Amino acid sequence: MPKRRSEPCPCGLPLPYRDCCGRLHRGEERAETAERLMRSRFSAFAVLDADYLLRTWHPATRPESLDFEPGLRWERLEIVRTADGTAGDTRGVVEFRAHYVQDGRRGRLHEVSRFVRHDDAWVYVNGRIQP
Question: What positions does the domain YchJ-like middle NTF2-like occupy (predicted)?
Fold first, then answer.
């Protein structure tokens, strides 16, 4: 979790964590778009919020539990493109690059993620790793 609630949000938007993804993680609001959900899920990985990740995962593809890799720190999210996923859509795609440091080495995860509306909220369905 950011050391101070006033620190920038890990998702990359220009707001403090408490006013950005922190609001979604605390259940004070829902993501209005698939991209916003993707950003909040990245932040949840960065702050180790497994409960939020599981709550925002589609029931058909959600694992029973989630463990975080020791020594892995998510640092920066880069949105490459989005398709659909707006407030009026039922499906959306977000392609992103998530930058991390693991055991002192920098790396990157490039994924195309699918999202759908379920019970009137955006949820993550699955993703395809890109080279």
Answer: 33-127
